[in-house]
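Work Package 4 report. The design task specified in the project plan requires that, given a folded chain encoded as structure tokens, an amino acid be chosen for each position. We show below one input record used in the internal validation round.
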């Protein structure tokens, strides 16, 4: 049996309670030793965020403080060009040669996976755990090439730590229906003290740095 590490990439523009609930339920379900939050510097499939990667990473750091199994990983901030997940996994594989890795993603991200750079190689480095997202159907339609790799969530803790990569599982427990897009709109329109979908320390940071005040900007 190997130690199992969760890898949670995202734009985190900004991080919210949906992300944190997702990470918490994955931690409990898979019995990972840690979950690494990896903010994208330049997300390949979104318009370049108006809020810098440094601010987004700082908000992740504030959001996870006190959770000793949640770790901020800034490896994508140190690279040039688009933040490809495959390159991150390649790097983490070298950094954690004796551990098992599991990439986490919401169901909306999984549906778009075939647009990702070298997506078919992701399973050569890590397992994949897809988490149901509110409003998505509660069945996972697997991409060609992924059939035969899906295992029951009940079997995932053992299977994921017995082999180092190559399996997929699906967690149907749904995190709260929160999105960064929705939050950016609320942050631009409403008084910050009425917003409850993110940790208070993150809201305070947003206020201090005057972030998300323009509704039209990403
Ligand atoms: P946006 O609204 O800008 O698309 P987002 O809320 O999806 O942002 P990201 O940082 O892009 O935030 O998300 C990182 C990962 O977390 C993605 O794989 C996404 O599917 C997943 N995720 C985010 N929020 C939720 C949620 N509420 N429920 C389930 N998965 C989520």
């Amino acid at each position: 049996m190997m130690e199992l590490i969760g890898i949670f990439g995202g734009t985190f523009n900004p991080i919210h309670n949906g992300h944190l609930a997702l990470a918490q339920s994955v931690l409990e379900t898979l019995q990972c030793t840690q979950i690494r939050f990896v903010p994208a510097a330049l997300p390949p499939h979104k318009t370049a965020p108006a809020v810098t990667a440094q601010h987004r990473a700082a908000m992740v750091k504030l959001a996870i403080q006190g959770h000793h199994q949640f770790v901020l990983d800034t490896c994508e901030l140190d690279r040039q060009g688009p933040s490809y997940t495959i390159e991150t996994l390649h790097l983490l594989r070298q950094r954690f040669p004796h551990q098992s890795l599991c990439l986490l993603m919401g169901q909306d991200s999984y549906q778009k996976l075939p647009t990702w750079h070298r997506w078919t190689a992701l399973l050569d480095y890590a397992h994949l755990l897809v988490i149901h997202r509110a409003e998505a159907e509660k069945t996972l339609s697997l991409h060609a090439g992924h059939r035969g790799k899906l295992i029951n969530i009940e079997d995932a803790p053992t299977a994921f730590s017995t082999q180092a990569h190559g399996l997929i599982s699906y967690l149907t427990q749904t995190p709260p229906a929160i999105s960064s897009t929705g939050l950016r709109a609320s942050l631009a329109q409403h008084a910050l003290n009425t917003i409850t979908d993110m940790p208070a320390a993150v809201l305070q940071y947003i206020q201090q740095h005057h972030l998300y005040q323009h509704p039209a900007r990403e």
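The pocket of adenosine-5'-triphosphate is lined by residues 10-13, 18-19, 22, 105-106, 108-109, 131, 133, 175-181 (CB under 6 Å). Validation will be extended to a larger panel in the next phase.
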